[in-house]
Amino acid sequence: MTNATNATPGNEPHASKTPRRIVVGITGASGACYAVRVIELLAASGIETHVACSNLGKRLLAEEMGITQLDPDALSGGRGDRLVIHPGNDVGAACASGSFKHDGMVVVPASSNTLAKIAHGISDNLVQRAAQVTLKERRPLVIAHRESPIGMAEIEAMKRVTEAGAVVAPLSPGFYLEPTSIQDLVDFMAGRLLDLLGVDHGLAIRWDQHLKARRTRPE
Q1: Looking at domain 18-215, what is its CATH homologous superfamily?
Q2: Are the C-beta atoms of residues 126 and 89 closer than 8 Å to each other?
Q3: pTM of the full structure
Q4: pLDDT tens for residues 119-144?
């Protein structure tokens, strides 16, 4: 047993000061609005958010959201101080290491290609590498798949990642809360993804709350 009095300076036990961290991976499946909304909500919650975006993810943000540069303020609704953006091809980035402590990762949107790479342990970019590290470290990994229809290859990949400990959460919003806008649909899924990561939010996506509000609604 090592004597604490002989410990290497800087290695003495101390209380953890690590803030909550979430890793967000963005890939080339349609649904950039989901990624941006998740990042906005994480930043609003004061969570240190690490973003990895593939090359096709960058194209997606530009084509669907008009975001041509990975600007922290543009992605977070003006809370860029809570974001860390990593180069998408840097498999040596901090979040690519198992020693990087975080509270979970969400890949949103997740393409079928990315799903397959994660399922088979292949990493060509930081999103894939960070996801695989999240699995091997037994941390929460949510894969928000956004392609339809799906074939047997996708089904098998979903099975493999689920067996490895990931949660596959298809970007398929519900309509039972009576949405009146696209933003309502985006918020439904963004809220569900944050639920899976254990992050509190104030979005009105609860069925019980909806029932209560409906009962008090004037006839």
Answers
A1: Flavin prenyltransferase-like (3.40.50.1950)
A2: yes
A3: 0.89
A4: 999 999 999 999 999 999 999 999 99
